[in-house]
Amino acid sequence: MGDVSASRELNAAKLQTALRELVEKTNEQFKPETPSPYTITLGDEFQGVTQSLHSGIRTILYMEENRLLLPVPFRLHYVLHQGFIETAINPDKAWGMMGEGLTRARELLTDKGRNRRRYTISLPTEAAPHAAQLNRNFAVLDGIISRWNPDDYELIFDMIQNESDAEVGKLHGKDRTQIYRRRKTLMINEYNLLKQAVFAGLEFMEAAL
User: Fold this and answer.
1) Among 122-131, 137-146, 188-197, which is the least confidently predicted range?
2) 208: pLDDT confidence band, cut at 50, 70 and 90?
3) Calpha distance 177→66 (Å, rounded)
4) Could you report how far apart the first and last alpha carbons of the chain are, in Å?
5) What sign results for the dihedral spanned by CA atoms 95, 98, 100, 104?
6) Angle 59-185-140 (CA atoms, 0-180°, nearest 5)?
7) Looking at 31-40, 112-121, 126-135, 180-189, which range is the least confident one?
């Protein structure tokens, strides 16, 4: 599940259009891995059922990066919870389902506590140490992302996707040295290394459990 942070401060109509675009793009990208597609349940909230922890993490990172390309800049709060759904999975929209998994995910999403994280990974007790490590990694990722200015979002997206400073420079009318400096200032390499650490941790967890 997820929602838009501080949505009341944004233009509602433009926000809904941008969020719908992001959700539709995500569903298209992850259709084989999403038994119940991501669906906007309220104006600024969405939910869906992913087939695995790995798919869920990939989806979060995909949404987080592709929101940088939207005309309306906003931040998302994500909850990825592993739990049971007692009713049949709805293959068309993430509506009309019931179970502990959905109930707990919503509790985590709506928790407005002082220490609320922008990313929350919740796993069964036996995997709690791995969930804690994932949450730590995502907290560091968020520390990097929070440094980024919306004016740089498109440039940042291209730097994440492309390691060639020269090629990114051509896209943005800058020389290779300028892109190299921006990449260092915005900690793009560190961001990508943390992503690699997240997926390496998932492989370790799968082998251990």
Assistant:
1) 122-131
2) low
3) 25
4) 25
5) positive
6) 40
7) 112-121
Structure tokens at 46: 């969405």
**HSE-up (13 A, CA, CB side) for residue 40:** 16
Contact 43, 7 (CB under 8 A): yes
Residue with tokens 């896209």: 171
Structure tokens at 23: 């959700």
pLDDT for 90 equals 96
Residue 48 has pLDDT above 90, yes or no: yes
Q: Are 56 and 80 in contact (CB under 8 A)?
A: yes
- Residue 127: strand, helix, or coil: helix
Contacts of 64 (CB under 8 A, 6+ apart): 76, 78, 145
Torsion sign (Cα): 148, 162, 62, 78: negative
Res 207: pLDDT = 66
* Alpha carbons within 13 A on the beta-carbon side of 75: 14
Rg (CA), the chain: 18
Q: Which residues of 8-29 are buried (b: 16+ CB within 10 A; e: fewer)?
A: eebeeeebbebbebbbebbeee
| Residue 39: exposure state from Cβ atoms within 10 A (0-12, 13-18, ≥19) | middle
